[in-house]
Structure formats: C-alpha cells, structure tokens
Specification:
With 306 residues, this protein is α/β, with parallel strands linked by helices. The protein has a single domain (50-304), classed as NAD(P)-binding Rossmann-like Domain (Rossmann fold), CATH 3.40.50. Helix content is 44%, strand content 13%.
Amino acid sequence: MPPLAHLAGRNQYAPILYQVQYPANCPSGQVPWHGLSVMLLSEADCIGRNMDKIALITGASAGIGCEFADLLAAKGYALALVARDQSRLEERARLLEARHKVQVTTLPADLADASAPKNIFTELQRRNIRISVLINNAGSGVYGLFAENALEAELAMLQVNMTSLVHLTKLFLKPMLDAHEGWILNVASTASFQPGPRLALYSATKAFVLSFSAALSLELKDAGVTVTALCPGGTQTEFQQRAGMKHMAGARPMTARSVAEIGYNAMIKGRPIVVAGWKNKVLVAMSKRAPIMLSARVAEKLNKGR
C-alpha cells in the first residue's frame, strides 16, 4: 500500500490521488480516485488487462455479485462495489486488491433508500470515476402470502429490485452514451417468466426487470451500449435465507460462480437475455408454452415446498 493510503480508512469516501509514470502500453497515466487504497501495478500487470474500464457492481459483498466482482477483477477491471454491509464490503475489497492487483472503491449503501442511487452516482462523479460496466445485481425477496406479508418489507423489495435498478441505469447510461461504449447487466430470474404465488411481488419485480432490459437493449442497439438480462434459477447464495425460504428438498442449485460466468459472457457478447443453465432453459421453455395460469399453479406447488 502506498504511503498515506491508510488515511482513507477515516472516511470511506475520502479520495487519494497518486500520479505515477506508467509504461507506455499501460492504458492510463493516472491512478483513479480510490476510497480505500491505491495499488500501483507493474508493466507486466498492465499488459492485456482492462485497466481502462471500471465496473460498478451492486450487491457485491456476497453471492452472485461477489462472484461478478472476483471474475471482473481477474480480467483486470477496476471495481466500484456497492453493498449494505460496510465491514463485509471492505473486507471483500481488500481480498480482491491483494489477489488481482486492481483498484477497488467501496460505496456502502442501502438501495432500499430512494436517495442511494443518486448518492452513488454523485460520489463517483466527484472522484472522476467513469463507469463502463454496470451490473445491477442487488435484489431482495419476500416469501409468503401477499395478504400476510409486512408491507414495509415489500415496499423495500420494490425499491431495490425495480426503482433503484432503473435509477442507476438512468444515471449511468448517459455517460456511456456520450462515450459510445458501455455494458449493462441486470439480474432478473427464471421467476421472470411466470407468476409466482407466495413470491407474488418478487416474481413481478423480476418480470419487470426482464421486460425493461429487453426493451432497452433494442432502444440502444445502435448506440454502442448493450443491455443484458441474466435469468438465474436456484443458486447457492444467501438469498433464500434472507427471503425467509428453506432450500427445496432434493434441489441442486447452480453455483454463484457459474451463474456469474454465464452472465459475463452473455454481456460481453451483447446478448439481450440469457437463462443460466440448461435445466433452467428447459423449464423456461416449458413455461413459455403453457397457459399462464397453469404455469402459476406449477410455481405455486414448487413455492409451497420452500
């Protein structure tokens, strides 16, 4: 760690700027603003890496978001990571910096707070950090009968899964359009494709993400910016525990790493929609062909076992 980098620990938003002479083939002659630490890379580190690209990942402290962060850092992207748990987020940043020699900025924020997206955007602008890749991964779920669930928890889920996702996309899209370059990945779900009793609002939010992403991908088809909706099914994450669900007996969920790899590859190729895993592809294909109420009844039986 360079001298004085520890001072950033007094404030997660405290910037430190270091001017260094990079090798001629390194994409930048200036280390970006950074809230935790700055790592100076050797000439070998600069070759063949995406050091001129910075990825913003929400929900980055665990699960699929955590794997996205590790995957992009391994490919040389600098990172801006968002999550609610500041200590966990900063620990993750330190591990990524040490393992991959990339710069990681942490932005602790709760996307259930309507002001969080604007605060994130404003802070990154203040530090002169331009985002090339936006991965809207943060999400929450509320399990149970709609009539019995807590309204406050449901409204928070709507804010995280839909409103904050749209707000972040709106804010970061314009700089991408100005640069004629950008990649946006929104995490939807296989639940996007049918109603989900006992997960009624969650499934609806994911249907929204899928529809919004597909439409936006066409609006931007000639703009140099791609939009991808990633639709995972059951995945080994903390989601079910936080949503108040049990793992289904006999279920074999995919790993968060494999889902992140599928999503990243689809995003880089500019694919508008990708369903993660061949089993999920089969289930989605069957759901599309079935009458909507039949799909809903099947989902109801599956969700009762959660």
